[in-house]
Q: What sequence folds into this?
């Protein structure tokens, strides 16, 4: 059904789409190539919400050459009027005679309507070329739409002997410069970074991208069940990106010091008086957050694991030996894990300076 030329054109479109990985949130990353056989006559990618979609850039570049060409798009062309007019109509007008999409858009506003519109106008449409790669690229967007929760990545840094901090909680500089620079890239790709109130009270972090200029800073989320966040903390006052405070506090008078700069989220409460993470993730999805990075202490990170709400673990392991200190996770003993196949699969590993980065994905995770 698909030729080698088709495959290589879609690979080009996927590479273009990936260029938007730092900036398209909350929109999906999309690339488009217009080609006659192996000759590309137009290409483009979506850069930022509110700006033209990938197809528009590619069609503009192709001009008259779009006549009789094939358009390769990494996501089904949109069929609805959002902030920009529908791409399916732009493709129709352009004179392309075939449209190949890597996957259908699960957004209920599109959901097959884009391809159906093209098909009904006599354009040959095909779907599913390199779909797995396209899904991987938009795991956050897809998770938000399909599961109504973000794709959750846990970021952990640990010593050679499995400690995240000294027993007094000091953890600064466990990993080296290269690993810390890599975390900045992961932050820049994330829709939001989540942490606990303990981390904020200890470090007053900004949780932003500082190493390089970026079109969009990730949102910040603080889990603060009793609303202890100092109103003068960086997260509340720096205005770099939206800050969300998730709390169990319901006295709205207490929200006043934060209202100007931060959004209050009110997730439900668990039986033992904690923030229900599942309900919080639903609220975050409703706020347009698709890719979420958790940069928190052992307790909160462990809670995501215990609730089975994590999709990926990024582990930076330093060769330092800390001796007595805080364990990476605090979870009840799991005897069954000894004999069962591992739940987490390592998908990549690399040496960064003197540290080792390993990425684990949960088994059977379709994202
Ligand atoms: Zn579009």
A:
């Amino acid at each position: 059904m698909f030729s080698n030329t088709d495959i290589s054109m879609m690979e080009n479109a996927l590479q273009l789409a990936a260029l938007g990985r730092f900036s398209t949130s909350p929109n999906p990353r999309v690339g488009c190539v217009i080609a006659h056989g192996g000759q590309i006559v137009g290409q483009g990618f979506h850069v930022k919400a509110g700006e033209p979609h990938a197809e528009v850039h590619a069609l503009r570049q192709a001009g008259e050459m779009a006549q009789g060409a094939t358009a390769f798009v990494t996501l089904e062309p949109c069929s609805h009027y959002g902030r920009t007019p529908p791409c399916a109509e732009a493709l129709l007008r352009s004179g392309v005679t075939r449209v190949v999409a890597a996957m259908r858009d699960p957004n209920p506003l599109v959901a097959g309507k884009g391809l159906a519109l093209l098909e009904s106008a006599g354009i040959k449409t095909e779907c599913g070329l390199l779909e797995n790669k396209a899904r991987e690229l938009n795991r956050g967007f897809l998770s938000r739409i399909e599961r109504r929760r973000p794709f959750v990545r846990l970021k952990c840094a640990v010593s050679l002997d499995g400690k995240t901090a000294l027993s007094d909680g000091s953890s600064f500089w466990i990993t080296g410069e290269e690993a810390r620079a890599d975390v900045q890239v992961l932050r820049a790709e994330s829709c939001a970074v989540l942490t606990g109130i303990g981390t904020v009270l200890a470090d007053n972090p900004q949780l932003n991208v500082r190493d390089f200029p970026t079109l969009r800073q990730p949102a910040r989320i603080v889990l603060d069940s009793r609303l202890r966040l100092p109103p003068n903390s960086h997260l509340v006052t720096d205005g770099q990106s939206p800050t969300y405070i998730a709390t169990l506090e319901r006295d709205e008078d207490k929200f006043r010091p934060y209202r100007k700069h931060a959004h209050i989220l009110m997730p439900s409460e668990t039986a033992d008086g904690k923030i229900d993470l599942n309900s919080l993730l639903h609220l975050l999805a409703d706020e347009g957050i698709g890719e979420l990075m958790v940069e928190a202490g052992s307790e909160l990170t462990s809670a995501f694991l215990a609730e089975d709400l994590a999709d990926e673990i990024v582990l930076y392991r330093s060769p330092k030996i800390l001796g007595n200190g805080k364990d990476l996770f605090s979870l009840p003993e799991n005897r069954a894990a000894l004999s069962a196949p591992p739940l987490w699969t390592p998908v990549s590993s690399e040496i960064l300076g003197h540290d080792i980065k390993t990425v684990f994905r949960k088994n059977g995770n379709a994202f």
Notes: The mean pLDDT is 92. Residues 53, 55, 77-78, 87 surround zinc ion (CB under 6 Å). The longest strand covers residues 344-352. The two ends are 25 Å apart (CA to CA).
